[in-house]
Amino acid sequence: xxxxxxxxxxxxxxxxxxxxxxxxxxxxxxxxxxxxxxxxxxxxxxxxxxxxxxxxxxxxxxxxxxxxxxxxxxxxxxxxxxxxxxxxxxxxxxxxxxxxxxxxxxxxxxxxxxxxxxxxxxxxxxxxxxxxxxxxxxxxxxxx
Length: 144
Ligand code: 4NP
Fold this sequence. Notes:
42% of the residues lie in helices and 13% in strands. It is an alpha/beta fold. The protein has a single domain, classed as Response regulator (Rossmann fold, 3-Layer(aba) Sandwich), CATH 3.40.50.2300. The mean pLDDT is 98. The site of 4-nitrophenyl phosphate has 10 residues, from loops.
């Protein structure tokens, strides 16, 4: 199964979701292919935000090898599920959907709640990590 994690900048939240999901898949021996992308292009080619890298490392997860990229329409073809962090991401990704097959792949990671953008608040990285971790655990329980 192939899963794409999407946020705005692809340097704070979706790299954490990408790293956490990969870590859980490896831990549980699950055949999952994970990637992440952003709807905005400001940081394309960069690694994750240092605050995300540090928070992940504090939980035993290395995300330093990730490289920021932009969400592209062909992601609808390649991925089985596309999980977004908030309602802006949802709107931006859905605006690129070509049909219902594309649209049904896109869901909020936390279903009925958003993962807030921690970019302007250092103190949010730790709670955001735990929100994403919970979301990833529930996705694995449901899908795998
Ligand atoms: P992310 O956070 O969407 O969780 O990666 C952000 C990162 C960068 C910016 C906004 C949000 N930015 O405006 O550069």
